[in-house]
Each structure stands twice: as structure tokens, then as C-alpha cells.
């Protein structure tokens, strides 16, 4: 089955469903990878879409197994912004009084975990974390700049700082869940499906030396996320894709939504997709480090513009901008 698990076949399945329902057109909403699937559908079945919203959009020319390489800078900046937030709350988290001090604490944790795994938590939720795990925890923690998300990361880094100092630690249920995701196969179905699709869509380099070289090149500029975003992944060992990646050659009337500091699918990808689809409109959320905005980030400006489009089917006359 695996050679046939890919985006183009998913798009074909979508069109089979459309036909079975007797509909001439479908309406579609996609977040993140869903923006790529939606884009592919417009190219394979032009003219068969009604209302289409692509939120957290991917540049289809950059889509592939090494997609996170495109977001390494955004993640470093999102972490730095979080460090400023945490520094203002040093009394709560004890990570440092300035951005630089908080980032220095993060770096100490990474160095300590490289010397030997950190033991965190108490039985039955006890985990041993090395320097391959800590960047993943950071990446997961900066996907949104809400106070709730930032507080969760603050609590997690405080725990890791204690562990790095050899002190006992206790885990919140949320942090324990994150660590089970990072260190066990508990949520493998989610990651495995995502890997299957992306590996079936676009080939990855097979030579491990390519990844080692890219990791070493990235360390100076991106000390916390360079290795993670350039590392080898299952696609290096996958069968070659059965089809070539979809080329965007057909215009489509879609509404693209993006935050300027998106740490998963960078804003530049949304701008690029907008350029490939001249009839599209781009709604930009300025100043937010957030992946997937509509209905999730509680920004009234974004929500109202998307709601108006979904209700009327009419794209804005021009691109729109909202403030955080």
C-alpha cells in the first residue's frame, strides 16, 4: 500500500467523493499540510472548487521531507521572543532576567543533555532526555505565542533546568504527554501517516553524509534548531515516489491565511503560493508567532474576514492585513 499513499491519490479520492455526492464543486478548508493538499486538488481538478481557504500555507515548490529547513530561522526567532516573555516573568520561572540570560539557560540545558541524558519526572512518568530530545521540546513549545502556550513552555524549561542541575523534578500532565510523544511510539499513528504521505510525494537524499554536512553548516547560525531541522528522517530510506510532484500551473481563486512569524510553514511560503495563484487573496496576521490561525488563535480580524468569505463566496477585492 505504501507506494500509493501520497497527496495526488488523496486528491483523487476527494474528487471521487465529490462525484459520489453529485456535486459539481467542493468547498475546502486546509491547515498546514492541508494547504498543500488543497493546492494539489486545484491543479489536478481545476474548476471544481467553490470556497477554498488555505491557512498556514506551504510553498508547493518547497514541500518535501526537509520542509522544516525552511522554518529554522522562524523557530529561532520565536524562541527568542518567548525568552523575552519568560525574562519578564523570572519570578515565576527562574530562567533569567533578560532574553540573553533565558537563552543561555536553554543552551546550558542542551549542553548538559549532550554530556548525559537528563532524568525528569517520577515513576511511572520518568523520562531520560538527551540533546536530540531537547530541541524537539523547544520546537513543540514555540508553535504559538499565546500566554497559555508560553507559560507551558516556561514550566517545561524550568523542569529541564532543574534536571540539568541534578535536582528532582515533577511533571505536569501536559509535559508528560509531550515527552511520551517525543520518546515513545504512543502517538506513532499520527507521525507515521504524515511520514508515509510526505515520503510518497517527494524523494529525499539517501546519503547520510548530506544530512551530517547540513547539520554542521547550520550550527553557528541556528544553534538550537539547526541540527533538528537538517537531520535525517525516514524518507531517506523510502521507496522512490511513483509520481512527480505536482507543478502549479493553473490559477485558482482561494483565500490564503498566514501569520508573519509562523514557525511551521513560514509566511514566505504563503506569499509564494499567492504569487503562483494570481487570483488568490492573502490575509496576513502581522506580528504573531503562530501556526494555523482561523478559529484557533481567537483573532477577531482574521476570523471575520474568513467568515465573510465562507458566507458569501466572495474574495476580498485586495489582500488584507490584520494586527495581532
From TrEMBL:
- Give yes or no: UniProt keyword Signal: yes
| Positions of the Peptidase S33 tripeptidyl aminopeptidase-like C-terminal domain | 227-322
Q: Return the Pfam families for the record.
A: Abhydrolase_4 (PF08386)
The protein's matches in SUPFAM superfamilies, at most eight in alphabetical order, are given as:
alpha/beta-Hydrolases
Does the record carry Hydrolase as a key word?
Answer: yes
Q: Which InterPro entries match?
A: AB_hydrolase_fold, Pept_S33_TAP-like_C, Serine_prot/Carboxylest_S33
Known Gene3D superfamilies for this protein? Answer: alpha/beta hydrolase
Q: Which domain of life is it from?
A: Bacteria
Write the record's keywords in alphabetical order, separated by commas.
Hydrolase, Signal
Q: Which family does it belong to?
A: Belongs to the peptidase S33 family.
Q: Which PANTHER family match?
A: 2-SUCCINYL-6-HYDROXY-2,4-CYCLOHEXADIENE-1-CARBOXYLATE SYNTHASE, TRIPEPTIDYL AMINOPEPTIDASE
Q: What is this protein called?
A: Peptidase S33 tripeptidyl aminopeptidase-like C-terminal domain-containing protein
* UniProt source species: Streptomyces luteireticuli
Amino acid at each position: 500500500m505504501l507506494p500509493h499513499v501520497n497527496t495526488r491519490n488523496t486528491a483523487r479520492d476527494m474528487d471521487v467523493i465529490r462525484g459520489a455526492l453529485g456535486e459539481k464543486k467542493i468547498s475546502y478548508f486546509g491547515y498546514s499540510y492541508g494547504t498543500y493538499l488543497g493546492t494539489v486538488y486545484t491543479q489536478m481538478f481545476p474548476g471544481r472548487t467553490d470556497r477554498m481557504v488555505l491557512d498556514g500555507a506551504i510553498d508547493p515548490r518547497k514541500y518535501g521531507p526537509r520542509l522544516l529547513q525552511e522554518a529554522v530561522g522562524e523557530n529561532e526567532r520565536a524562541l527568542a521572543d518567548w525568552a523575552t516573555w519568560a525574562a519578564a516573568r523570572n519570578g515565576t520561572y527562574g530562567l533569567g532576567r533578560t532574553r540573553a540570560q533565558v537563552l543561555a539557560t536553554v543552551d546550558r540545558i542542551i549542553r548538559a543533555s549532550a554530556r548525559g541524558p537528563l532524568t525528569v519526572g517520577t515513576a511511572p512518568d520518568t523520562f531520560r532526555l538527551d540533546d536530540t530530545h531537547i530541541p524537539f521540546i523547544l520546537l513543540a513549545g514555540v508553535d504559538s505565542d499565546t500566554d497559555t502556550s508560553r507559560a507551558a513552555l516556561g514550566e517545561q524549561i524550568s523542569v529541564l533546568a532543574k534536571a540539568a542541575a541534578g535536582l528532582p523534578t515533577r511533571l505536569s500532565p501536559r509535559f508528560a504527554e509531550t515527552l511520551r510523544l517525543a520518546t515513545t511510539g504512543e502517538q506513532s499513528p499520527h507521525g507515521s501517516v504524515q511520514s508515509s504521505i510526505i515520503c510518497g510525494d517527494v524523494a529525499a537524499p539517501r546519503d547520510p553524509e548530506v544530512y551530517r554536512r547540513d547539520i554542521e553548516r547550520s550550527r553557528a547560525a541556528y544553534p538550537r534548531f539547526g541540527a533538528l531541522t537538517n537531520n535525517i528522517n525516514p524518507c531517506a530510506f523510502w521507496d522512490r515516489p511513483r509520481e512527480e510532484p505536482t507543478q502549479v500551473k493553473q490559477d485558482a481563486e482561494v483565500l490564503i491565511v498566514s501569520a508573519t512569524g509562523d514557525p511551521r510553514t513560514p509566511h514566505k511560503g504563503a506569499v509564494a503560493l499567492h504569487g503562483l495563484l494570481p487570483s488568490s487573496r492573502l490575509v496576513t496576521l502581522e506580528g504573531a508567532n503562530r501556526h494555523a490561525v482561523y478559529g484557533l488563535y481567537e483573532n477577531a480580524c482574521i476570523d471575520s474576514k474568513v467568515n465573510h468569505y465562507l458566507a458569501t463566496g466572495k474574495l476580498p477585492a485586495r489582500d488584507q492585513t490584520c494586527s495581532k
